[in-house]
Design brief:
Blueprint: E1 2-7, H1 11-23, E2 26-31, H2 34-43, E3 48-52, H3 60-69, E4 76-80, H4 85-93, E5 98-101, H5 106-129, E6 135-138, E7 141-144, E8 149-152, E9 155-156, H6 161-172, E10 177-179, H7 180-188, H8 196-210, E11 220-223, E12 227-230, H9 233-236
Parallel strand pairs: 1-2, 1-3, 3-4, 4-5
Antiparallel strand pairs: 6-7, 7-8, 8-9, 10-12, 11-12
Length: 238
Amino acid sequence: MKHVLVIEDDKDITELLNIHLKDLHCKVTTAYDGKKGYELAQKGKYDLIVLDLMLPSMDGLEVCRRVRADKNNTPILMLTAKSEELDKVLGLEVGADDYLTKPFSVREFIARVKAIFRRTEAIQNETAASGNAATIIFGDVEIDRERRKVQLKGKRLDLTAKEFDLLLLFAMHPGKTYTREQLLELVWGYQFNGYDHTVNSHINRLRSKIEEDMSKPKYILTAWGVGYRFAEPEEVER
């Protein structure tokens, strides 16, 4: 059974989400303000956090920032009543895994939740099946798949959930070129039509954390006119 934390001040929406999450065999914990929601996120272990952007006492962006600052990688689905592109991008930038703009259909909500669960389970299954390959080492980068921990030259990096997922995908398939559309589908779990900039933004943030020289990346390389790829071992060793 999955355990979901819903942080939403609209009690009608909360009740609706409750009903449909329970139909997916989820245990649901609710909070009606940001401060209480953050406290619950600190204390409990959840498979998903559904987080409203506009909340009393502490807004959703701040809750998201604090959750990620705690090294908590629980997937976050952000809800926003605002349709401006900036709000969506900001939510993803501070570590949300996905977003839905209100009003949204129950069918779309369920699809997003299922996509997040599929992605999480796929990562867990890949890690379990990898045996001795639970740790991937490329040059100065060490990726602990089970603990979702990344170190650069022995120093732990502070990555968001999506930054980690991107890096892991690349590192597991060195030399393979991915289009932005493929990365959106593989890492976010479905297509974000028209949001290629989301990939670019996450790639740039990830590069800023693992590359010594952003203008001459060593690990995440640009395949001009196509997308991105992870360097092959012999390229990293040069």
